[in-house]
Amino acid sequence: MNQANTSPTLDALFQRILARKPDAVALIDPINKQRISGRPPMRLTYAEADRVISALAAHFIDAGLPAHSVIAVQLPNTIEFVLTVLAAHRAGLVVAVFPLLWRQSELVAALNRTSARAIVTMAKIDGVVHADLAMNAAAEAFSIRHVCGFGSDLPEGMYSLDQSIAKPSRSTRGIMPDGRKAAIVSFDVTADGFRAVPRTHLSLIAGGLAVSLESDLPQGVNMMSAFLPSSFAGLAASVVTWLLSGGSLALHHPFDADALEQHLAQLGCDTLIVPAQLAFRLDEGELATRLPNLRYVLGMWRAPEQVASSPAWKTRDIELTDVYLFGEAGLFAIRRTSADGNPGPVKPGRQGAPREQPGSSIAGEILVTPKGTLGLRGPMVVVAAYAPPPPPSDSLMPAPPRDFVDTEYAVRLDRAHDTISITAPPAGVMAVGGYRFLAQDLHEWSRRLGQGALLTALPDRLSGHRLAGRAMDNARAREALAELGLNPLMVEAFRDRAGPGG
Fold it and tell me: Bridge-partner residues for 435, per DSSP?
């Protein structure tokens, strides 16, 4: 049999579940979706989701998007995101996932970097008119040929995907499922700057396996994800684990604690995927009493150096798995199994399968590089995307090729116990939640604001860093940064602060 016929894709995983239980609930929207997007929440079975996926795929084909071309997606954590990704794959397209914080300058840079042919967005998300952002960015990206969106009041020239779903075309494209083909492109920032990271279906599935195997998720789990999917980790931990389990996936657009708990209780979810710091906030109360059906929590650590100093997990009836995220390079997961609820040890070597089984590495491998940083390799890791720049042409000693990605996180190896401690994040790279940028960029934007302006990153326990700015006129600084097309983290750093010290 041809290898391509046995190499799974995300859509192939979906269709396997569809064939077994078409009437089972597949996807559930956030209960506060009306506030987020102005659209009512939906609940779809696998059969209903399949019809929408086919309609969207037909629209992309009818729009003239060639097979294997890139389609950019900037959508909230709602059903539309999952349906669009699966529809793009069914149409033979590669999905570039764009963070919601990105504004025009970043959108244009990413569209040009990937030569994207189309962009999909929503009319409004949390009060921001993303449809206008997409149209303005598309006007500056020469490769864009098609702009489409969900919602009402779309600007002129933007195609309505709601209409394509309501009156579906029957166009299809003969695509042989092949997990070795590119599936997504996500975006990272390292000391060498901004980079696009393409991944195959198999690489994505490896990431999902790393999470689901370590957390020991059973088949058919009823999960809720409150972690944005616009990254490799977000997709692997939510969409891929859902497809691997064959259960249902409820979504929560971060973050409304009351709405999250209400929805978890209402649906009786047994699995929660959430930023780790928020998991501990939930754990401060009687979590098992409030949510009696909850059995598994996947705590996503964007700042993995903070895991070792995190609080003990109190709720004995609910298992916590720490998921260590290293930008877009990769991840690994370690379940808390000790009686005291403290984090499990990080050990070098293979991850994702019992170590006593030779050749059973599924998730990847952890190693310490010669310069004392954490390296990752294995099926989820895209080594080529992180290859160091080539040496000068006059160099007599070219750098040897390597089979791992250096995450640039500083580590310390305890040889006596064969464990690794992650001690510091990459030098020169700042992170505010899921948004990463170079420290030198802060100085560049400050310089543009004129004399006396200051923009800096301060350490923050919850998000890694937080931005703070100072200018002669904060209101004018905010306007200037918004006009430059910068994201709201930069803009709101110059908000006026009440009280002494400003």
Answer: 432
Residue 419: half-sphere exposure toward Cβ, Cα within 13 Å? 11
* Separation between Cα atoms, residue 29 and residue 43, nearest integer Å: 6
Torsion of CA 142, 143, 145, 149, to 10 degrees: -100
The reported pTM is 0.89
Q: Which two tokens stand for residue 420?
A: 């690794």
The residue whose two tokens read 């259960």 is: 247
**215 membership: H or E segment, kind and range:** helix 201-215
Q: Is 354 exposed, middle or buried (0-12, 13-18, 19+ CB in 10 A)?
A: exposed
> What pLDDT is attached to residue 264?
94
Smallest CA-to-CA distance from 10 within 250, 174, 176, 183 is with: 183
> How do strand 364-368 and strand 349-351 relate by DSSP bridges?
antiparallel
Tokens of 182: 């590119």
DSSP codes of every residue in 128-181: B-HHHHHHHHHHH-TT--EEEEESSSPPTTPEEHHHHHHS-----------TTS
Terminal alpha carbon distance of the chain:
69
Contacts of 354-362 spanning 24+ positions with Cβ under 8 A: 362/206, 362/209, 362/210, 362/213
**290 φ, ψ (degrees, to nearest 5):** -70, -35
Report residue 436 CA to chain centroid gap: 13
**CA neighbor of 318 nearest in space, from 301, 334, 298, 302:** 298
What is the fold of 8-169+178-335?
Rossmann fold (3.40.50)
Contact 117, 143 (CB under 8 A): yes
Would you give the distance in Å from CA 96 to the centre of its chain?
Answer: 11
Residues in the chain: 502
Of 133, 124, 128, nearest to 153 by C-alpha is 124
- The domain segmentation of the chain, as residue ranges, is 8-169+178-335, 346-351+363-380+404-427, 429-492
The mean pLDDT values, 10 residues at a time, for the chain of 502 residues are: 63 96 98 94 98 97 96 97 97 95 89 97 92 95 95 94 95 85 94 91 94 94 95 96 97 87 94 92 83 95 92 92 95 94 92 50 82 94 85 59 89 92 87 71 71 70 64 72 62 58 38
Please state, in angstroms and rounded to a whole number, the distance separating the CA atoms of residues 462 and 416. 32
Task: Give the C-alpha separation, 14 to 240, whole Å.
Answer: 10
CATH homologous superfamily of 429-492: ANL, C-terminal domain (3.30.300.30)
Identify the pLDDT of residue 360: 45
Label residues 61-100 b or e (16+ Cβ within 10 Å = b): bebebeeebbbbbbbbbbbbbbbbbbbbbbbbbbbbbbbb
